[in-house]
Design brief:
It contains 13 helices and no strands. It is mainly alpha-helical and 286 residues long. It has 2 domains: 45 residues; 213 residues, MetI-like (MetI-like fold). Helix 4 runs parallel beside helix 8 and helix 10 runs antiparallel to helix 13. The radius of gyration is 25 Å and the shape is globular.
C-alpha cells in the first residue's frame, strides 16, 4: 500500500502548487483593489459621521444630517461650483484639442511628428510643483496684476495645458489598431471624408474620447498644486479643503467627495459598456 501511495504524493504536491499559483494572482489583485479603495471607503463612511466638534477624524455616530445640506458650510458652494466649472470647460477644450492632435499623430506623417510626440509627454513627466512655479512665472512675466491677474482664467489655462497630454495619450491608445478598412469602404461607397469621419470614425473612437474626457475632468477637479500657484485669491474645492484642514475638515466635504466618486464610477461603468458594444460591432463588421 505504501509503495503504491508514494508515487502519488509528488503528483498531489504538483496539483496543489498549480492551484496555489492560479489563485495567487486573484489574491494579489484583491489585496491591491482593497488597498486602493480603502481611503474611498473611509471617505464614504465618514460622510455619515456625526462629530462632536469641527473635527471629522473620529467616528462618533451615524447621521444623515449632512447629506440633507451638503453645501451648508460657508464658502463651500462657491468653491465646488468654481471647481466644476473650470473642470468642465478645461475638459471640453482639452478633449477637442487632444483628440485632433492624437488623430494627427496617428494618421499623418509630418516633419515635426517625432518632436511633437516627445513634447506631449513633458507636462506629464514634469513635477507639478515645477510646472506650477513655471506657469506662475510666465503669467507674471507677461503682465501680472493688474494687467493679467491670477484668477480663474489663469487656472483654466493651466488645466487645459496639462490635460491635453493625457487626452492625446488616451485617444492614441484607442486609435491603435483602428480598422481603417471601414473608412475605406465608406469612401468607396461614395461618402466624403467628413461624412466618413462622423458616421464611421467618430462612433468607433467615441469611447476613447469619453475616457479621455473623464480622465481630464478628474485631474482638473482634483488638482491642488498647480492651481495653488495660478489661483491668486481664487479658492477651488481642493484649496478649500486645505484651508479647512487646520481647524478640522467638515463632514460636508466627505459628502461632496462621495457624490463625485459615485457619479464618476457610474459614468465609467456606462462608458465601459459603450466601449464593449462598440468593439463588438467592430468585430462583427470584420
Amino acid at each position: 500500500m505504501s509503495a503504491a501511495a508514494a508515487p502519488s504524493r509528488p503528483g498531489a504536491l504538483v496539483r496543489a502548487q498549480k492551484r496555489l499559483d492560479g489563485s495567487a494572482l486573484y489574491i494579489f489583485t484583491g489585496l491591491a483593489v482593497v488597498y486602493l479603495l480603502l481611503p474611498v471607503f473611509v471617505i464614504i463612511l465618514f460622510s455619515f459621521n456625526d462629530p462632536a466638534g469641527k473635527s471629522n477624524f473620529v467616528w462618533q455616530g451615524f447621521t444623515l444630517e449632512y447629506w440633507m445640506d451638503p453645501l451648508g458650510v460657508p464658502g463651500l458652494a462657491n468653491a465646488v461650483f468654481l471647481s466644476l466649472l473650470i473642470a468642465f470647460v478645461s475638459t471640453i477644450v482639452a478633449t477637442i484639442l487632444g483628440t485632433l492632435i492624437g488623430l494627427a499623430l496617428v494618421r499623418y506623417e509630418f516633419s515635426l511628428r517625432g518632436a511633437t510626440n516627445a513634447l506631449i509627454f513633458i507636462p506629464m513627466a514634469t513635477p507639478e510643483i515645477v510646472l506650477g512655479a513655471s506657469l506662475l512665472t510666465m503669467f507674471v512675466s507677461i503682465g501680472g496684476p493688474p494687467f493679467f491677474p491670477l484668477s480663474p482664467v489663469t487656472i483654466l489655462i493651466a488645466h487645459i495645458m496639462f490635460n491635453i497630454s493625457y487626452v492625446v495619450v488616451t485617444v492614441r491608445a484607442r486609435l491603435t489598431g483602428f480598422p481603417r478598412h471601414l473608412e475605406e469602404a465608406s469612401m468607396d461607397l461614395g461618402a466624403t471624408e467628413w461624412t466618413t469621419f462622423w458616421k464611421v470614425t467618430f462612433p468607433l473612437i467615441l469611447p476613447g474620447i469619453v475616457a479621455a474626457a473623464l480622465l481630464a475632468f478628474s485631474l482638473s477637479i482634483d488638482d491642488f498644486v498647480i492651481t495653488n500657484f495660478t489661483a491668486g485669491k481664487t479658492q477651488t474645492f481642493p484649496m478649500f479643503i486645505y484651508a479647512k484642514y487646520r481647524i478640522g475638515i467638515p463632514v460636508e466635504v466627505n459628502v461632496i467627495g462621495t457624490i463625485i466618486f459615485l457619479v464618476a464610477v457610474g459614468t465609467v461603468g456606462i462608458t465601459t459598456l459603450a466601449r464593449i458594444r462598440a468593439d463588438a460591432r467592430a468585430r462583427r463588421s470584420l
